[in-house]
Amino acid sequence: MQEKQAARRSTGGAPATAVLGSASELPGKPVAASASVLATLVEVADTNPMGNIHGGVIMKLADQAAAAAAIRHSQHICVTASIDRLDFLNPVRVGDMVELKSAVNYTHRSSMEVGVRIEAERLQTGERKHVATALLIFVALDENCRPVTVPPVIPETPEEQARFRDGQARYKERAEKRQRERSSARPG
Fold first, then answer.
1. pTM here?
2. Which of 33, 105, 117, 186 is the most exposed place for a label (fewest CB within 10 A)?
3. How far apart are the first and last CA of the chain?
4. CATH code of 132's domain
C-alpha cells in the first residue's frame, strides 16, 4: 500500500504502471529498493605499470554492482544485455578504496537500466573523487532462462525522476536503433 501511495505521489496521482509505461501488472518498487553498494580495496594486481586501476577491473566491478541492483529489484537472476556507456573521469590508484553505488533507473517489460556511480577514496586522507559512471542494461530471467516481467520502478525524488526520464529516452533510442538495424539487414 505504501508503494502505491508513493507511486501516486511521484507520478502526479496517476497509478505508477500507467505513467511509467510498464506492461507489468506487478506492483512497483521505489528506486531505493534496488540501491546497492559494492566496495573494494585496489590492490597491485588490479593496476597497470603506472599504479592506476585497469579499466577492465572497473568494468567488472560496475557489472557486479549493477547486477546486484537488478537482481534486488526483479528478485530474479539477471544477465547483462549491454553496457550502454562507461565514462572514466579520474584515475584510481593502488591503495584506494573503490565504492560503486548502483540503482535501477528505468524498467521495461523484462529489462532494466541500472546506473552506477563509481567513487574512489584515498584512505590515508579521506579525499573522495568521482572516477566513473556507467549505464548497464539487464534482463531478468526465470528458472528456464527465459525473460520474465519485472516490476516497474517508482522514481520518488526529483533526481530519480530525471534519471527515469533519461532512461526512458535512452530505451526508445535503443529500440529505434534496433529497428533500423533490422530493416537494413533485410535482403532486398
1. 0.84
2. 186
3. 54
4. 3.10.129.10
Amino acid at 76: H
Task: With beta carbons less than 8 A apart as the criterion, state whether 61 and 118 touch.
Answer: yes
Structural domain range at position 85: 2-185
Q: What is the pLDDT of residue 185?
A: 76
**Which ranges of the chain have pLDDT less than 70?**
1-24, 188
- 136 in Cβ contact with 61 (< 8 Å): no
Q: What integer pLDDT is reported at residue 147 of this predicted model?
A: 98
Q: What's residue 15's pLDDT? A: 39
List the beta strands (DSSP E) in 18-161.
29-30, 36-41, 77-88, 97-108, 111-122, 127-141, 153-154
What would the grid cell of residue 166 be? 533519461
Report how many domains make up the chain. Answer: 1
Position 23 scores a pLDDT of: 54
Q: What angle do CA 107, 100, 41 make, to 5 degrees?
A: 155
Distance from C-alpha of 117 to C-alpha of 111, rounded to nearest angstrom: 20
